[in-house]
Specification:
By secondary structure, this protein is an alpha+beta fold. It has 2 domains: 1-48; 52-200, no CATH class. 35% of the residues lie in helices and 20% in strands. It is built from 4 helices and 6 strands; from the N terminus they run H-E-H-E-E-E-E-E-H-H. Strands 1, 2, 3, 4, 5 and 6 form a 6-stranded antiparallel sheet that branches. A hairpin with a 2-residue loop joins strand 2 (78-85) and strand 3.
């Protein structure tokens, strides 16, 4: 009797180990696929901000490290992607974070020309309310295009707020916190660019490859 119980217990134990292994394998495979999809989405979003013909390098492979918790909203360094044409940097894509979104942090990409004009802003991750705050996504509204062509002085500093706060950027009906956070983070990113232009726009080294 004890032998039978022991045999059944061993069988169940082996089955449990096998099942755990299958679950772990599936989880790892799924996690890898999700990570790959996220990286591909991120890369496409970076390249979508850069006008065709404005670079002859590989922007996703041409990066410099940035770090400024106050202006970029990150507690750890993050890469800035550089678009270069004949060795000269024509645009930079920063990765600021809007910490004060309604649903938490909002991860952004902010494209800036060498002259300090915004090429555009893209949201790559957020937890905002569906149907309200998620209108920061390009597919949900055209709101993000309100940043296109803007600069640190256009509008002047008082204008870098939503309309409700006396600024020049629209808010969403029933959702002011989300656009307020994105406007603020974009303005701070422009301040970072202005303060670090010399490093961000440094010419490419002679050994850098071009297409």
């Amino acid at each position: 009797m004890n032998r039978a119980l022991l045999k059944n217990a061993l069988a169940l134990g082996l089955l449990a180990v096998a099942a755990a292994g299958v679950v772990a394998t599936v989880h790892q495979f799924t996690a890898q696929r999700i990570d790959t999809a996220q990286r591909e989405f991120h890369g496409r979003a970076v390249l979508e901000l850069l006008p065709k013909g404005s670079y002859d390098n590989h922007p996703l492979d041409t990066q410099v490290s940035t770090f400024d918790p106050k202006l970029l909203g990150r507690d750890e360094p993050a890469s800035a992607y550089l678009a270069r044409l004949q060795g000269q940097t024509t645009a930079v894509v920063l990765q600021p974070v809007a910490r004060d979104g309604y649903g938490g942090s909002i991860q952004l990409l902010v494209g800036v020309t060498a002259q300090g004009r915004l090429l555009g802003v893209r949201v790559v991750a957020h937890h905002e309310t569906p149907g309200q705050g998620d209108r920061i996504e390009p597919g949900k509204s055209d709101w993000l295009h309100g940043f296109d062509g803007r600069s640190l002085g256009d509008p002047a500093e008082p204008g870098w707020k939503v309309n409700k706060d006396g600024g020049q950027f629209d808010q969403f009906v029933g959702a002011t916190v989300t656009p307020r956070a994105v406007v603020k983070a974009t303005h701070l990113a422009l301040q970072y660019f202005d303060a670090h232009k010399s490093e961000l726009l440094a010419p490419a080294a002679s050994g850098d490859r071009h297409e």
